[in-house]
Amino acid sequence: MKQGKIIKAQKELYYVDCNGKILMAKARGNFRVKKIKPLVGDNVVIDDLEDRKAYITEILPRKNEIKRPNISNIDQILLFATIKDPILNLYNLDKYLAMCEYKDMDVVIVLSKIDLCDENEVKDFENIYENIGYKLISLDNFDNFPKEKILDILKNKTSAVSGASGVGKSTFLNNLIDIEVETGSISEKSKRGKNTTRHTEIFKIGDESFLFDTPGFDSFDIDFIEDEKELKYLFREFRDKRCKFKDCNHINEPACGVKSYLADGLISKSRYDNYLMLFEEVKKRRENKW
């Protein structure tokens, strides 16, 4: 028996790194019976057979996991966004940030393809998210790539690259490490990425530094949270605002501190509007569940 980390998954075949030796493994049938699926990032126990083949016999306890992309044991997310090509979807971005807050994962927002938009658009975006404490890197993948700065952010952490299809994740990885990741363009018909990464994989970029390459997402369910009243805690700019009622949801309640800050322009209107939409989405999901 050996211990290792799943660094790549393709259908039902898993690549397990055991102290630098890569073994191809399948999961034992009892996982399927228990409805448990090994994830990229899992630390596992394997039964090593001949010809570099193995079977996964145990999945060690997970630090965390997310469903889209379906990965585990993440320290931080590098969340990619573009203002143009594809057009920025702030609703999906804020939904994803709420999920990261819920999972207690650090986030670095990577604003890619800034050469396609003007400085004011970039500044407006930066002002929204830097003002509420998110780390943010703005980059043009083809000029002045800040490799050393990014490697320092990734140092001694297991990070995941995520974001919608076509936002420049593969180009980013090609610039960062000595690999060739298939890059995708934007389909004119659907305005979605095409020919992009189809599997999840981990790259080792230092002794204790790992980087997930994950398939892009365009939308996902907000099933990580069941009660809409908990959503307010996932918007960090809402915290420590003095409201008349302790259980204020910052919607229709009187003497709401959040709405006061919003009226004074101290809270982003786009973030607040997305909070309202997410609140309704969680509420409808809860009501329809029963």
From TrEMBL:
Function statement: One of several proteins that assist in the late maturation steps of the functional core of the 30S ribosomal subunit. Helps release RbfA from mature subunits. May play a role in the assembly of ribosomal proteins into the subunit. Circularly permuted GTPase that catalyzes slow GTP hydrolysis, GTPase activity is stimulated by the 30S ribosomal subunit.
Domain CP-type G: 63-220
GO process terms (BP): ribosomal small subunit biogenesis
Family from the record: Belongs to the TRAFAC class YlqF/YawG GTPase family. RsgA subfamily.
GO CC terms: cytoplasm
Quaternary assembly: Monomer. Associates with 30S ribosomal subunit, binds 16S rRNA.
HAMAP family named in the record: GTPase_RsgA
Ranges where the EngC GTPase domain occurs: 72-218
Keyword Nucleus: no
Record note on cofactor: Binds 1 zinc ion per subunit.
Binding site for Zn(2+): C243, C248, H250, C256
Residue numbers binding GTP: S112, K113, I114, D115, G163, A164, S165, G166, V167, G168, K169, S170, T171
Pfam families, per database record: RsgA_GTPase, RsgA_N
Locations listed in the record: Cytoplasm
Name this protein carries in UniProt: Small ribosomal subunit biogenesis GTPase RsgA
Tree of life domain: Bacteria
InterPro entries xref list: G_CP_dom, NA-bd_OB-fold, P-loop_NTPase, Ribosome_biogen_GTPase_RsgA, RsgA_GTPase_dom, RsgA_N
GO molecular function annotation: GTP binding; GTPase activity; metal ion binding; rRNA binding
Cofactors demanded by this protein: Zn(2+)
SUPFAM superfamilies for the chain: Nucleic acid-binding proteins (SSF50249), P-loop containing nucleoside triphosphate hydrolases (SSF52540)
EC number: 3.6.1.-
NCBIfam families in the record: ribosome small subunit-dependent GTPase A
Keywords on record: Cytoplasm, GTP-binding, Hydrolase, Metal-binding, Nucleotide-binding, Ribosome biogenesis, RNA-binding, rRNA-binding, Zinc
